[in-house]
Amino acid sequence: MTNPAKSAYETFAPGYDEFTSANNYELWLGEILLAELERHGLRHGRVLDVGCGTGRAFEPLLKRDWEIVGSDISPAMLDRARAKFGDAVPLTAADMRELPEFGAFDLVLCLNDAVNYLTEDGDLERAFTRMAANLAPTGLLLFDVNTLGGFEDMYGAWVETGGVFERMLEATGVEPHLHRQRHFTPEQLESALAAVGLTLLAMLGQREEGKEILLSPTLDEARDAKIVCIAGVCSVPFR
Prior knowledge:
The protein is α/β, with parallel strands linked by helices. The chain has helices at 4-19, 25-39, 58-63, 75-85, 123-132, 148-154, 186-195, and strands spanning 46-50, 67-72, 91-93, 105-110, 135-146, 159-161, 164-171, 174-182, 199-209, 212-216, 226-232. Helix 1 packs parallel to helix 4 and helix 5 (123-132) packs across helix 7 (186-195). The protein is globular.
């Protein structure tokens, strides 16, 4: 059976970079998220980018001399990344629920709502298990998910059916095609992390005001577009 996320991004790949061109990864990841990770003890070194897509996160990481390994479920998205970055980043096609062990990483990333594509029961725990298997003992996991506000306000075309949101997306040169994402509550995220031996270190609300990206320690699903989570293997929880 074809994986819906793989099918969606095999179709979306030619138009993805144009569709997401307004996303400022240097500001978001390079200046804001890495600084937040450093407050939680991030060590500079090796990073695994899970769901890396066309490599939108690579430039700010390479600029800061990170050694990057990337994986994505869509070979077509990885082809776009290779065209931009050549051999600078080793890339592997992999479902995050069956992620190989690439090594011990100081940072594992899963950005831009990739986790929301895990729509079946147990998917979240399976993916977190594989991400944890790639963490160094002091490594950190960073991921984000869409809030209810993110689905309802930022993506008004999403239609909810039983906790799963659906939307037809199109871009230049790309036919309309279906994307399916699941909403996860903060409690579900923390429980799934704990179930695989990961400790939640921070759960932040993220929103944009003008050109600013704001992180708040007080999460509000109506106000914030995303939940940003930081977790580790053996650390003090955020509460």
